[in-house]
Design a protein that fits this description.
With about 300 residues, the protein is an all-alpha fold. It has helices at about 5-35, 45-55, 65-85, 100-125, 125-155, 160-165, 180-195, 205-210, 220-245, 255-275, 285-305. Helix 1 (about 5-35) runs parallel beside helix 10 (about 255-275). The two termini are about 35 Å apart.
């Protein structure tokens, strides 16, 4: 066991590095395809890397209410997704999923949401607090949906082991997997809001509240926050792939890794198409959608549990 530990840690670090490298590239794909759909040439695929490196080299100006808390919140905002990456099969089999349970995974998901809220609260400006309130509204509405999907997977496998749950466990019931199908529909209709993309980028809303929670940040802190936002797409796409599109994930490296990323890129293309063809919703439209969607989702969740 002691001999395997260094290898597990090395693989976990590789997963974290891949997350940091791949997230800006997927962002570049989104920008490029969005521009093409809107009849523009668009920036090069490497533009997100240029933007991040440029911000990392700028002066770090601190203008918020609590500079120390801002530094801590920025670190937590990026470290959360990096730790989650070690539990997901980004390079094939996950290095830590075999020895972890779903309760820890849920805690980490909640931790990422809290870190993003702390980013806005520590800034303390009117715009950042407004963006933070919207971030909290989205988290309270959406996070329970994904938690229920993980719990249903735990019920189906009769286990809390994360590796078993992140392997299409929502389809584990005998006969027609109604609970998995219901949860798949719910997650598909809420995925755009999970990752904070148009039309649900209401917490940043550049034309209304000028990037909301991150308005008081600049230089390296802003770079890390934008990097963290990019990683959300990779993390959630990987979770959705493992829960609802598990086929081919169990294959040996590199075929398993290839299939995972093909499915994740397919999700990215769907996200891009929706974002490029829809305008950002107003806050009142989003609230009505979330409230009506949560009402439908609540009964759908009961049906999903009953379907088990």
């Amino acid at each position: 066991m002691s001999a395997e530990l260094p290898l597990q840690l090395l693989r976990a670090l590789c997963h974290m590095a891949l997350l940091l490298i791949a997230a800006p590239f997927l962002e570049g794909i989104i920008r490029k395809i969005t521009a093409r759909i809107q009849s523009r040439q668009g920036p090069p695929l490497w533009q997100p890397y240029y933007d991040l490196f440029k911000l990392l080299g700028k002066e770090d100006l601190e203008s918020g209410e609590s500079p120390l808390m801002q530094r801590v919140a920025v670190i937590l905002s990026l470290s959360g997704p990096m730790v989650l990456a070690a539990f997901l099969p980004l390079l094939g089999a996950s290095p830590l999923a075999q020895s972890s349970d779903v309760v820890l995974f849920i805690y980490l998901l909640v931790f990422c949401g809290i870190a993003n809220i702390l980013v806005g609260l520590s800034a303390g400006s009117t715009y950042s607090l407004l963006g933070t309130s919207r971030e909290m509204m989205s988290a309270i509405t959406l996070e329970p949906l994904l938690v229920v999907a993980l719990i249903i997977g735990a019920i189906h496998t009769d286990s809390l082991q994360l590796a078993k749950i992140l392997d299409g466990s929502v389809y584990g019931s005998t006969g027609i997997p109604w609970s998995g199908l219901i949860m798949a529909v719910i997650i598909v209709f809420s995925f755009q809001a999970f990752i904070g993309r148009i039309p649900f980028d209401i917490s940043e809303a550049e034309t209304e509240i000028m990037e909301g929670p991150i308005i008081e940040y600049s230089g390296p802190k802003l770079a890390l926050l934008k990097w963290s936002h990019m990683t959300r797409l990779v993390i959630y796409a990987s979770i959705i792939t493992c829960l609802f599109l598990p086929w081919g994930n169990q294959w040996a490296f590199p075929l398993g890794m290839l299939f995972i990323w093909i499915k994740m890129i397919g999700i990215v293309l769907a996200v891009t198409l929706i974002a490029a063809t829809h305008a950002r919703w107003r806050i009142d439209q989003s609230i009505r959608y979330f409230m009506s969607f949560w009402g439908v989702a609540f009964w759908a969740l009961l049906l999903a549990i009953w379907g088990y």
